[in-house]
User: Fold this.
Amino acid sequence: MKTDRRLIQLFTLALVGVATGCGTGLGQAGLGETLKQVFQDNFLIGTALSLDQINETDASTDSLIKHQFNAVTAENIMKAEIIHPEWDRFDFDAADRFVHYGRRNDMHIVGHTLIWHSQLPPFVTRITSADSLRQFMQHHIGTVAGRYADAVDGWDVVNEALNEDGSLRQSIFYNLLGEQYLIDAFKLAEQAAPSAELYYNDYNNEQPAKREGCIALIKKLQEAGARIDGVGIQGHWHAGRVPFEEIEKSIEAYAALGLKVMITELDLEVLPRNFQGADVGRRMDAKDPELNPYVNGLPDTVLQQQASDYEKLFSLFLKHQDKISRVTFWGVNDGQSWLNYWPVSGRTNYPLLFDRNNLPKEAFYRVIGTKKRSD
Ligand code: G3I
Assistant:
């Protein structure tokens, strides 16, 4: 089975190479069977873009992105520390290019993210008064969301405001403004970008306690008259330990609140880790070689486990396609995933559907297969 697929893949790539008249056909995995085409009647298929990808520096990766995905999220360049480095200075250079990229390629554009406790510019972390922080929020959200009001289709308005037990994180926003900051953030975003969808986004919010906290947060916004259109379940999971049942319960629970559900940062990592989630503040000791076991390639058992998990996930997403509007992967190929650098830097990780040469992995074919079986 595997050998057959590999042969078909090589044949396809040769065909594409001939058809395009260049050597960059690697981007067109499975001719005629791209993710965005296969799932076009079900949900958007997105990816997060790094600065290099926005700048189209690698032809093979660029081709892959344009063929496979119809939604893009800014992986880093719209975060406050980059787009708003000083109190009275914004840097829109990369964000403008990101938005143009999405528009040129007719993609759904997701802005990430307006209010997040992490990656804040130093001038914000030095703020000590509620008034100044409120002013920052007004200025930041008004300017950033306002600039892209006609271009960005949806904003992660608030990112990762919850602790694992469902309580609110003691971020600078919560500490100085209390839970009102959540309501203010959504109201400011709506004023600045009235036609954009507005989302709350978090990791581990499929886990029971955090899910309850997330539901309470959403209800608070709704009761306060703040518009919220969707909730993002990030989806940073581990191959072999994907919490399918909790994911299904969460999709149902969030949809029952009248919200669109999105899987916003999907990857299935394969390396050892002693905690779950994606808290960028947490790291592990880099010295232990057992933490980086697959430098020379991924064993077939692990590859198959990951493929099977991706297959089950997409079967679940298809089952709930009436509730899910978008599935976005956090990166394009294994080589550039953030999981090569976190929670241990310099590891060799394999979390996505495409390998380091932009070739489709077993998981890609299994994901495509879920759609065929559902027809
Ligand atoms: O651009 C600089 C480069 O100039 C410098 O040489 C290098 C040295 O470390 O750092 C580079 O910046 C890094 C940046 O990624 C771009 O690669 C930052 O250090 C690094 O902290 C940053 O990590 C990002 C992380 O968020 C923190 O912002 C990851 O790429 C990004 O994938 C990750 O994304 C988050 C989501 O926003 C929210 N949910 C969790 C998710 C994963 O942590």
User: Anything to note?
Assistant: Residues 75-76, 79, 119, 159, 203, 234, 265, 278, 280, 338 surround G3I (CB under 6 Å). The domain at 29-271+294-374 is CATH 3.20.20.80 (TIM Barrel). The longest strand covers residues 260-269. Residues 1-30 have pLDDT under 50 and may be disordered.
